[in-house]
Amino acid sequence: MTDSTTPRKVIFDTDPGVDDAMALYYALAHPGIDVVGITTTFGNVWVEQATANALYLCMLAGRDVAVAQGASKPLVKLAEPPPDFIHGADGLGNLPHRLPVTAQADPRGAARFIVDTARQYPGEITVVAVGPLGNLAAALQLDAKLPTLVREVILMGGTVIESGNVSPVAEANIWNDPHAADVVFTAGWPLTMVGLDVTHQVILPLALFWEIAAHHQHPATSMLYHAVQFYSGFYSQHDPLVGAINGCYGHDVLAFVVLTNPELFRLQAGRVRVAVDGLAQGQTMMQRKPVSYPQPGWHDSIPHTQVCLEVQAQACIRVIEDTLMRRWLAMPAAR
Ligand code: BDR
Ligand code: CA
């Protein structure tokens, strides 16, 4: 658990996305986290849909959180179509209907929102980034001092030892915008990487989301169960280990669990760079030995990233269950 009694102020940078929705609801449910804003990016869906989903998720949970729209495409490479076979065409498992939403996105773009909020609360903001990293790269363009203004950045993305999920070496968020990711890994802020090395160890059973929905009897958790059913269908079909449990990987939610329960992870510090093109495009390459390499790109001045390499999976699942079972939901405001 976080030791401070003051909740941690978080900007959630996201491409919702089913596991993004789990992560947002974990953050809203957790007493140690104060979500001060959501910034959206393309990734699991196009950015307009990501923004609509973020507004929808907040409305359903009865929570009023600022949502600012961000990157619509990668910095350099061409955008690829969203993976509707994983998250559904709407990003939330093809919901059969939606309640109306009256809230609108913040008129500022995501990068401006991140910079403004970091200046408003210097040293207090944690950015939890669980999509392609264009918003953080753009925020660094707006203010090069951003790394000294934010408290830390925790990102879900990349992999060191575990195989990739879009190529043998690349994880999807990094693959989707490798140039932005390399900017983020070399910016010099306190940075933690939560990649497939740990997210592939934590299989969340679909039954857990049924129990959460049955417990709350609330539109937000019923919607989440529907979305996770679709998402679990993909993972259960494609990965025999996941299929044996009838579940899914929680990827993004683990970026919040490392914030609230760092004791459940083993981390190692080292330089991380991203292969921006070629066969290894999107690979997160980690320097795991404390030696000096004279090669360009690996100079001693490149900052270290704290990389999650091991996780206590069952304890993580218990924390996720306990958090989502809390009393945290209000009734949807706009009907
Ligand atoms: C990451 O890619 C997206 O599909 C998920 O939301 C997660 O952020 C996992 O590779
Ligand atoms: Ca995501």
What can you tell me about this protein's structure?
With 335 residues, the protein is an alpha/beta fold. It has helices spanning 18-29, 47-60, 84-87, 110-120, 134-142, 146-149, 172-176, 178-185, 196-199, 206-216, 219-238, 240-245, 253-260, 313-324, and strands spanning 8-14, 33-40, 67-69, 125-129, 152-156, 191-194, 203-205, 247-249, 265-270, 272-274, 284-286, 305-311. It has one domain: Ribonucleoside hydrolase-like (Inosine-uridine Nucleoside N-ribohydrolase, Chain A, Alpha-Beta Complex). The chain contains 14 helices and twelve strands. The structure holds beta-D-ribofuranose (BDR) and calcium ion. Beta-D-ribofuranose (BDR) binds next to helix 1 and helix 7.
Question: Secondary structure elements and their pairing?
Answer:
Elements (H helix, E strand, L loop, with lengths): L7 E7 L3 H12 L3 E8 L6 H14 L6 E3 L14 H4 L22 H11 L4 E5 L4 H9 L3 H4 L2 E5 L15 H5 L1 H8 L5 E4 L1 H4 L3 E3 H11 L2 H20 L1 H6 L1 E3 L3 H8 L4 E6 L1 E3 L9 E3 L18 E7 L1 H12 L11
Parallel strand pairs: 1-2, 1-4, 2-3, 4-5, 5-6, 6-12
Antiparallel strand pairs: 7-8, 9-12, 10-11
Bound molecules: beta-D-ribofuranose (BDR) and calcium ion.
The site of calcium ion has 9 residues, from loops.
